[in-house]
Structure formats: C-alpha cells, structure tokens
Amino acid sequence: METTQAVVIATAVLHNICRQRNLEDVEPEIDKPDNNSDSDREVFAVISNSSEIDSEKDNRRVRIYKERVDYLATLDSYEFQVRFRLDKESTEQLLLEIYPHIRVTGSRNHGISPLHQLLLTLRFYALGTMLLSVADFVGVSKTSACRIVRDISFAIAKLYNKYIYMHTDTEQEFYNVARFPRVLGALDGTHIRIQSPSQCESGLFGNKWLLGDSAYPLKPYLLTPLLNPQTQGQILYNEAHIRTRNCIERCFGVWKRRFPVVALTLRLSLLRAHTVLIATAVLHNICRSKCLVDVPPEIEIPDAEAMPVANNADDVNNIMERGTLIAEYFNK
Length: 332
What we know:
Elements: H1 3-19, E1 24-25, H2 38-48, H3 50-55, H4 71-74, H5 77-84, H6 88-98, H7 114-127, H8 131-138, H9 142-157, H10 160-163, H11 171-178, E2 183-186, E3 209-211, E4 222-223, H12 232-258, H13 270-289, E5 294-295, H14 316-329
Keywords: Hydrolase, Metal-binding, Nuclease, Nucleus
Subcellular location: Nucleus
Family: Belongs to the HARBI1 family.
C-alpha cells in the first residue's frame, strides 16, 4: 500500500468518523487551486517519488526548529473543526487508535509528536493540494510532511474494517424511501482526480437489486432508469429509482466537502491515492458515528463531471426483466 492509496483510505475513514458523530460541514479555507499550477506539481513531486524522499539528505543545512502550537488548547471547538475536519474528542480518540503505528520523527529534542503528525495529515486532507503550506502550519520541512502524510494515512487506512462496511438490513430502509422493492444498495461513481499512472461481473444477488444511474449498463442485478419514460408506470419507476438512489450521491457530496483532498487532483501514484481514499472514508464514518455536524469546506469544491450514458439497446433480456418489474410494482 503506497502513500496515495493510504491517503485515500484514511480520508474515507475520517469521513465515516465525522458522519457517526454528526459533525457539521464547514467551509474549506482555500480557493480551488489551478490543476496546471507549477507550484502544485513541485509540491507533489516530493510525494510522487518516495524513493527520492527517503534518499534526500538535509545534513548540510542549518536547521531552524519552530515552536509548535498546541491547537487543541489554542483553538475553540468550531475553529478546530474548520481546520482539521474532526472535532477535538474525535481527534483524541483517533490518535489512541492509530498510536501504536506512529513513530516520532526528527531529532531527540525536536521530534514531531504523534498528535502533530495526525494534525498535519488532517490539515492536508482539508486543504487538498497545499502540502508546503501544511508543513509550515505545523512547523516542519516539506520532506518531513511528505513522510508524515504517508505514514499517518497508512495508519488510518488500517482502520477500514472497523469503519467501512456494508449494511445487511437495508432492504426495508430503501423501500421506505420511495416504495422501490428488493433494493440492497445504490451505486454511483465519483471522479477523484489523481496523477496519471505511468502505464496505463460476476456475483450472486438472488432476487435483489442494486440501483445505478444511466452511466451503468443494465444488468440482471443492476437496474438503471429509463431514458424516455412513456407510461405512468415507467414515470413512477424513474421517480422511485431516482429518490431511492439519491442517498449515494449525497454521501459522495458530504465526503468530498468534508475532505476536499478527494475532490481535487491527487498527484500521487495510483496505489497511494487508493490508500488516501480509504483513509478519508474511514474518517468520514468516524465523524458519522460521533454525530459530528458537517462544517463548510474551506475551499471551493469542483462540480461533478457528467458520465456518458451506457448503451443498453442490445440487452433485450434485461430490458424485459425491468419491464416486468415496472408492470408488477409500478403500473398499479
């Protein structure tokens, strides 16, 4: 598991922590960065090549150590959550969970504490691409910040089994949304920008369905909306489909607002980006478990890009199966 993958997993963990705690969504602090910015490329060049980071020697420099701020003590609850996306209690609890996997970095007298390592990583998730600014925020070098984001993301991502899982009792809850029968889940895709890598169905669902939008192909286990509904039953089917599936779109929206790092360009390797996504999902579920109120993001989140519509013209059997469902449940 590399750094980008760890950061992805870690932000997913944090997202779920926030959801569990019902944390308010707060606005991000920075404007949307230019995706073609030279400064962005320079900042993430360090992360993208961990071998260069590990071999870098700073022994010839005169080191100036900055006094690190105790943000738990100096910031009030709202300002702390704005900057780090989790509240103080959730941050302290998370620190206890990942503490065995954290090492103190730096020299003996100026080591970076586990708390400051966690806060630096949370700050990176909240700002998206401004790694150099994050390093200054905590008072460490850019090289140290790269290592810390990698290590803490790995540590958070290891919590995914605890905070990211599929519910097994959702059929009735989905039915209660818009009376759509036998639904086990909803599918959606969200575009997470990453640095391009250097080289570039099966399953048993019984008589239950997943719901996906028109970008997905129509399958025996995956129902999509009709592009041109004509009858009253078809119209009711589409309305119920959209209302029932909307939960997954809302989930992605809250996740990206809570941790803008997954809404902006991740200039990391493919494996490291995966880890970051899982980590933020874990954190998001932690927020949910603590019922943390969502606080507005500090930066502008880009709009989701439209996906092309799948061509289902040749799926005769699946089209007939969908038609049978409409006749049985929605033509009444």
